Amino acid sequence: MTNEAGVERPGVHGRLACAGTTRGTARTGRLGDVLRRRREELGLSLEDVAARLDLSAYTYGSWERSPGLTWSDEMVGAMVVALEMDERLGAELIRFVAGRDKSDDFSAPVRPSGPVPPSSPARRPVPARPAAPVHPPVPVRPPVPASPTAPADPADPETGAYLRDYAGLMDAVPLPSMLFDRHWDVAHANPAFDALFRDVGPHPTAMPQQNFLRFALFHPDAPAVLAEHETGWCLPLMAQFACAFERDGEDRTLQAIRDEIAQDPIMDAAYVCGLPHWVRAVGAAAVDHDGAVRRVNHPDPRWGRTDCRIVDETPKTLQEKGFTRVTLVLRENPAVVAPGVRRGKSHLRAVSGG
Are residues 174 and 304 in the same domain? Predict the structure, then answer.
């Protein structure tokens, strides 16, 4: 059914009608102005907001220019978080998108005050996802490549050609493998990596294919995939981050991650108090991921809950360019292997001349 404002309401999703009334067309234009004005109040670029929504800058820019498209409740909620809207502004945006706008006053400056709670029953419910707290502004990060043919956009054509070929090599590996930079921004992840994290829900800043450190620390779905989450994944990654932050504390991206850790009192206490004791107890292995054995929950029952060994496969050329490549060597779950199926064994074999 389409109401007088030209908004179709199929089920629980609202949609700005492309062929609505003049008033509906005007609302579409004003909604684009709302998004642009709020972004400019925060001092963010199109790329900043797009990164928070895990979109391309072109896609988000088209929304500001002419947002006449279907938005799910989940996407509206992500927009509220990405643009750091408080309760009042978030509720007004949702009413505006749903076609029940009573006012066009979105110009008052606001400060973020946490996730937007559900509104009264008489209004359209504010979506509960994403439930992550509002994060401080995030510095511009390189966008996640959309395809394995372009893992990076270096100025040097030869470097770009090398990285594209290396991405092809990674895609041929049947085990989860990722290529990331010194900020843990993922430059390329192969299909096996995507399969491991295929059930992870959306998050504006902490997707595993976007930034693996942020995913492990801040994504609510991380413990579902990274088993023994705190001791097996969070502490080692926090130790690596602490070393990087100590070396280059002026780096804006590292500062932003440190600020996000400080937003969570429990995580901050672990970072300040617990982490130094753990590093002293574990030793050098605390900050060296190569060879570590950790546990994951793979959605494919062939693997299931299993151990994996982290293998650093970074050649010299990638090291010089500031990248690290790691592969998770999964151990097949013997409980799910069909009876009578003979499996090959991985082993080292000494070959003699006799």
Answer: yes
Handedness of CA 82, 87, 89, 93 (dihedral sign): positive
Mean pLDDT, range 199-211, rounded to an integer: 91
Number of domains the chain is built from: 2
Residue 278 domain boundaries: 157-336
pLDDT, tens digit (0-9, with 9 covering 90-100), for 217-234: 999 999 999 999 988 899
State how beta strands 324-330 and 177-180 pair.
Answer: antiparallel
Pair of tokens at residue 348: 């080292």
Number of CB atoms found within 10 A of residue 198's CB: 11
- 60 Cβ partners below 8 Å, 6+ apart? 46, 49, 50, 53
Structure tokens at 217: 């620390």
Q: Are 34 and 96 in contact (CB under 8 A)?
A: yes
Query: In one letter, which amino acid is 244?
Result: A
pLDDT tens-digit profile of 53-106?
A: 877 776 777 777 755 445 666 777 788 888 888 777 777 777 666 654 444 444
Tokens of 193: 């990596």
Residues constituting the chain:
354
Chain centroid to CA 128: 18
Cα-only R_g, the chain: 23
DSSP, collapsed to helix, strand or coil, labels residue 36 as helix
Determine the Cα angle at 267 with ends 226 and 198, to 5°. Answer: 25
Under DSSP, the state recorded for 226 is B
Task: Please tell me whether residue 244 adopts helix, strand or coil conformation.
Answer: helix
